[in-house]
Specification:
The complex is a heterodimer of chains A (about 450) and B (about 425). By secondary structure, chain A is of the alpha+beta class. Chain A has 16 helices and twelve strands. In chain B, the strands form two sheets. In chain B, strands 1-2-6-3-5-4 form a six-stranded mixed beta sheet, with helices on both faces. Chain B is globular. The chains are: A alpha+beta (about 450), B alpha+beta (about 425).
Chain lengths: ~450, ~425
Amino acid sequence: MATPSTQAASGVPALSAERAVTWPKRVKSRLANGLEIILVESHTIPRFHGQLYFRSGNAAVSHRSAGLAEMTATMVRTGTRNRASRQIEEDLRRLGADLSSSAGQDTSAISFAGLSEFSEPLLALVNELARDASFPESEFERERRQKLEEVKLERTQPGFLAGERLRKVLFGEHPYAKISPSEAQVSAYKISDLEIVYRESYTPENSLLLLVGDFDPSTMLVTIEKIFGNWSGKKPAIPVAASPANPRGRRVYLVHVPGAVQAQILCGCHSITRRHPDWVKLGLTNSLYGGAFNSRLVMNIREAKGYTYSPRSGVNALQQHGYFSVSAAVRNEVVAASLTEIFYEIDKLRSLPVPDAELADAKNYVSGVFSMGLATQDGLLSQVGTVALNDLPDDYLETYRDKVRALTPADLQATAQKYLDSANIQIVVVGDRSKIETQAVLFGELEIYDARGSRL
Amino acid sequence: MKGPQIAIESKILSNGLRIVVAPDSTAPVVTVGVYYKIGFRLEPQGRSGFAHLFEHMMFQGSANAPKMEHIKLINSSGGVLNGSTMYDVTNYYEAVPSNALERVLWLEADRMRALKVDDENLNNQRDVVKEEVRVNVLNQPYGGFPWLDMPPIAFRNWANAHNFYGDFADLDAASLADVQAFFKTYYLPNNAVLLILGDVKPSEGFALAEKHFGNIPRGAEPPFADPKEPLQNEERRGQVEEKFGTLPAMAIGYVMPPRRSAEWCAMALLDQALHGGRAGRIYRDLVLEKQIAVEADGGVDDIFGYNGPSQMTTRVLHKPEISADATLSAFDAVIAEVQEKGISLDELEQLKIKWRSDYYAMLEGGRGGYMPKYGLMHLVACFSLFDGEPRLVNTILDGFLQVTPEQVHAVAKKYLSQQNRAIVFRAPVAKKEAA
């Protein structure tokens, strides 16, 4: 049963008895070459979704250059020993498939989805990309130029500039500090660098193949064995990065964008990873603070005050270190007023217990949304993938809701005190300094940068 | 090739509200949508952006659910909700654990029956909407490009040509009286469809719908302005300044054939030939081969979801060292080739397989893993409101799969003409150095 909720307005129908939430079976296997496999049946439509994950991303190769795993992933789809770029794209279309290859900080991935009737040829193509990418010179020159324009363009996006500055502030010398390469770094990329990343990271021992969709798992396992069975390669050695220093005291970082007609606020502090025992507690605390439409922050600065359209808080779960963040794009005149409310709501959660009714509402929200993923193939893929990539316990999906529902006001207050670290939250504001500087400086010692990252 | 058939049951209440139930017990989740047949195209003149501002007001309070109650009741039932304003429809939708179905229907019925909002709510949401416009358009590189830039250049009828997000002066002029008048005119059971999709039995869905919506009074049939465009017989061009971005951009839009015609189906597949990802001819030619453009994408936006003049639009960001003229010439060469040679049977077969696959994917999701059946809801709603035929969702695919190479060739010649298109150039303004 759902937790009893706030007394609602008169006439509101009660919730009826809840239907059991049953997560589908995860069929797990491992090939002799080390490739880990998870298969999940979902017969909602005659399609399937898949991810071939490699358990290393940009952070693992950051000692060579920034964004190198991403550039490698970009190149992977541009040619193999058997198929030129154009052939790959037409073959995908012929299979009714979509495919992308990308890399984040912690993983690289080939993501794909297509018609079940063509699952075997699509997996064969994925296998080819993972093993036989040929890194053609002409494709590389083009993709590098594309990347160069992309890194110039992202410096014109307030959201990017805010995220880039906050990550630098929070992670210092750690690879997580760098969310995108510089123009100079992109210009210096070499095919040989990418080939090293490819050879080391794209190996069966470093991989997880996750498929969700309309297929029979035992037949699918045979197909996978046939296609991926003779692949070989060891797990890469990944250099261990020293833990980043946790910044003490509030400071304000203003990124100056002349002519900006709005200010992008992004605040954050260190928190935890998904593997941490407090993860579920922090998830619920975040939801109540600013992670849901009816959260305190949204009610305050959007619905009561009209400062912003899309305020949100979140817990960003990178695999080595997590961080908590709050964002809001606000009109220039209310930067100080918005920051005041952002901290007011944090401090309130730290100092006063959450009323029982409000806590019950937040629990229902978090557990309801968690099981929404059951209804679609990509929802299942995302939930099962999160569990697998973070090495969470096998029963994580089944026990999550019970863990949420067991939490008390005291748990939330303790969690807020621990992780919504008010006194040490770092503040980034992206906007026109002539409109916002006098407001920003009220919240801590101020550093001002331009969009290229130079101190002004 | 027989695709999955969706179970669809439909009835119309005595007040004119159509109810559509699509049962599927895969997961204990139900998606509910209410679609009203009014979008930003036909909002009142002098009130640009009003349909969207009004959509925000629908979350500000109804007779028995004061401000925030609606959002709170959905979230605290374990569900998510939103609304969106489109050309010809506005939707309000929720995905919730199925034990909250009756609560959702009660809430949707309450705000269909009576909106209870005041000036404070209106001022608050006016502020919120302005920040929405700033974050999505005014403070973003290429914000609103080309969906807001193209209409005033391409169209002559105000309905199709105005600023759909709203000029700030028009947003400022909107009054509470406008809100109530718009509500009384368009937010009627006989101008709406209710969708219940997922974990529900049809008999139960119909009974609950009748219980909560059955006594909402029918209204006078709403007046709809004619969105028809005068015949276009010249290419139209316009310029827009890019304030933040670093690359010159252009968008080229061709007016589409009439909805649900054989030409419309052929044009949809031609659109895929041109814009279907990295295999599409425009991306392949401009980005991969000639390497003129950095980005080239586009197509027909929401092909099933509009009911008036619409375009197939290409969006190109090109390298600064290549002129706009040279870029447009390269684009024109792609168009000329398909006009001269058409497309091969083999290419068309590839496109049909991809189209079919995309269609199934849309039915299941359409808005990510946490909004199940959004696409199914959207299609069934539009087929109900525009065609009176919710079951078209099971047959509409057939028309696309029957298209021949000759038909694609014919629409390429007929519709990809200069006098059927408009072009927006969006060039970066000269940069001042940072202070």
